[in-house]
């Protein structure tokens, strides 16, 4: 039983550390894009970025640069006509959702 408790505690610490790392690696704009990509089912990259830009007051050029970074990291895909979060992007968001820091 003690072993299970230690394992559970170390798993919680591992998740917390991984979450901290992701929050340091991704900026707020990237997290916003990733959240919208996960929720998106029909919009193009430009339509999503226009929406994020108008609702958050972020320049489109800034969002496009951040979208390219997310695509290079393999977290989003916009090669088709619809912006989508990849499996890795969805996993990153699930790690971030362990607390209230998601935008």
Please outline the helices and strands.
Layout: H1 2-25, H2 28-39, H3 45-56, H4 60-72, E1 76-77, E2 84-85, H5 87-96
Antiparallel strand pairs: 1-2
Helix pairs in contact: 2-3, 2-4, 3-4
Features:
103 residues, mainly alpha, Arc Repressor Mutant, subunit A, two-stranded antiparallel ribbon, 5 helices, 2 strands
Please tell me about this protein's structure.
With 103 residues, this protein is mostly helical. It has a single domain (2-96), classed as Arc Repressor Mutant, subunit A, CATH 1.10.10. Helix content is 69%, strand content 4%. The chain is built from five helices and two strands, in the order H-H-H-H-E-E-H. The protein has helices spanning 2-25, 28-39, 45-56, 60-72, 87-96; strands at residues 76-77, 84-85. Strands 1-2 form a two-stranded antiparallel sheet. The longest helix is centred in the first third of the chain and has 24 residues, at 2-25. It starts with a helix and ends in a 7-residue tail after the last helix. The mean pLDDT is 88.
């Amino acid at each position: 039983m003690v072993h299970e408790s230690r394992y559970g505690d170390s798993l919680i610490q591992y998740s917390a550390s991984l979450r901290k790392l992701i929050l340091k690696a991704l900026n707020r704009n990237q997290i916003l894009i990733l959240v919208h990509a996960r929720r998106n089912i029909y919009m193009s990259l430009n339509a999503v970025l226009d929406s994020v830009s108008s609702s958050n007051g972020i320049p489109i050029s800034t969002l496009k640069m951040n979208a390219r970074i997310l695509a290079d990291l393999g977290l989003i895909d916009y090669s088709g006509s619809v912006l989508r979060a990849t499996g890795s992007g969805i996993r990153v968001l699930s790690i971030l959702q362990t607390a209230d820091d998601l935008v």
